[in-house]
Amino acid sequence: MRKAVLLVLLLAIPSFAAEKPKAAQITGDYVETRSADVYTGQCFANGEMGLAGDQAILAWHVNQGTWLGQDLSGLKVVAAVKASGTLGDPYANPYPARAVLIVDEHATPAQREALIEFARHMGGKLLARIEKVVSAPINMQVFHSAADHGRATLNAGNFAAIETRAISPKDHLCGNEDTFYPPLTATTHAMPAVAMTDSYSGPALDSNWTLHDKRSAFVGTFEAGQ
């Protein structure tokens, strides 16, 4: 009897090993900005911890895919976040964080709910407390050519704006820079970039900001499945 059970288990192992991971249900472009440098040296990062980095903007442009049964291809969703401390600080807790979601005005009511749930899924604890959801025209573009490496633009109504460029040799201030903080959400690829503009002016966060020329952005791609 034992031999028979063991044989059944051994025969079952290859079938489990042959299982393929689920294909991504949704893919697209991702842009993130923070109010602290993400590409920086240890000394500069230490100088900002506890003083900056509690604000962030996260933006997703769905190239193709569905969520909650809704086709979200071509739609965008943006989150503006005000945390309780420096996001990514290993010695402090930045939560709870408050967020405002800006949803593509072209979304139908069902697509709007799917975009909200998609953003919650991607943001995790960062978007656990959404104070307000607004609709607005969103224009987001990530440039993929070699000549425009690291370049992205975002305009979400009158609420949020981002413009990035690639990091260049002139952005190395101490010579020991590296990607000090990882992106705040899951990505398939992300590169640090300079945020020439990082701006939020909107409701519910009791905080508006406009920052320029900080090494505080990520430009990349994402994929996700339910």
Helices, strands, pairings?
Elements: H1 2-17, E1 26-34, E2 39-40, H2 42-48, E3 55-67, E4 70-71, E5 76-82, E6 98-104, H3 109-123, E7 130-136, E8 138-142, E9 152-156, E10 160-166, E11 178-179, E12 189-200, E13 209-211, E14 214-224
Parallel strand pairs: 6-7
Antiparallel strand pairs: 1-3, 1-14, 2-11, 3-4, 3-5, 5-6, 8-9, 9-10, 10-12, 12-13, 12-14
The parts where pLDDT drops under 50 for at least 5 residues are: 1-21
**What's the rounded overall pLDDT mean?**
87
Looking at the structure, what is the overall shape? globular
Strand percentage:
35-45%
Largest sheet features = 12 strands, mixed
Look at the helices and sheets and give the structural class.
Answer: alpha+beta
**Terminal Cα span:** 40 Å
How many DSSP helices? 3
Tell me the radius of gyration.
20 Å
Encode the helix/strand succession as letters.
HEEHEEEEHEEEEEEEE
Number of domains: 1
Q: Helix amount, in percent?
A: 10-25%
Number of DSSP strand runs: 14
Q: What would you say this structure looks like, in words?
A:
With 226 residues, the chain is of the alpha+beta class. It is built from three helices and 14 strands. The chain has one domain. Helices cover 17% and strands 41% of the residues. The protein is globular and about 50 Å long.
Briefly summarize what is shown.
This protein has helices spanning 2-17, 42-48, 109-123, and strands spanning 26-34, 39-40, 55-67, 70-71, 76-82, 98-104, 130-136, 138-142, 152-156, 160-166, 178-179, 189-200, 209-211, 214-224. It has 226 residues and is of the alpha+beta class.
